[in-house]
Amino acid sequence: MTRPTLHAQALTLGYGQPPGRTEVLAGVSLSIETGEVVALLGPSGSGKSTLLRALAGLVRPSSGSVSVEGALLNGPHPKVALAFQDPCLLPWLSAGKNVGFGLTFAHQDRLTRLERAERVRSALHAVGLEDAAALRPSQLSGGMAQRVALARALARQPRVLLLDEPFSALDEVTRAAMQQLLVRLVSTIRCATALVTHDIDEALLVADRILLLGSHGRFVGTWHVDLPHPRDEFVGELGAMRIDILKSLRADMMRPHASNSYPLT
């Protein structure tokens, strides 16, 4: 049996001290294989972003562990890349320099100047923006800025790619294009990918597997989307799965002490 690229075992994480302590994650475990896209669904406040930050090594769980290719994660890892909803581009740097930003940090691979330049060029090429390397963020559309942010993550040549609602602020057409781009890139690069989203349809169109994080900080449902890409024509299959996900979400929110978070769209 092959070892998963990313593995989290019994993660528990909360805030505050007893008796008023709030548990955000309560023994969460998951594994993501090479080249697999896992979508993390759940109502607002269920702990999806907290889980993603724990997987990135940015927050330390109260108990449990995270490992990347079998090595325990004790902090940020050079082969784990994280992208947020906001592209977070530095306005005084060009698109190319934004993509290369961070490649010289201490925990990154030691690269020559030529190697860094090639990483930037290759990443921009992958997202279709090689000709926009000299543009400043103010000259980029929302979709272009998000592609630059994705290229910045790709330039690190990650084994694990973590995405926190990266397309939610985009218009419908641009968002669909970015979703298709993500599927192509993961298929090519073969990184293990976790995508946090509020959008069930996005999860169904992009992910190989969907995990629903419930209001008690535990997974309450798993769905395998065994359909080829693109999936636009599989209306019946995706529609049935969407209804099942909504039923599981509503059942979870009806449980005693469930949060008052709004349902998924």
From TrEMBL:
Claim: Membrane is one of the keywords in the record: yes
Domain ABC transporter: from-to ranges: 6-240
Annotated coiled-coil segments of the chain: none
Keywords associated with the record: ATP-binding, Cell inner membrane, Cell membrane, Membrane, Nucleotide-binding, Transport
Pfam family, one: ABC_tran
GO MF annotation, one: ATP binding
Entry's family note: Belongs to the ABC transporter superfamily.
Protein name: ABC transporter ATP-binding protein
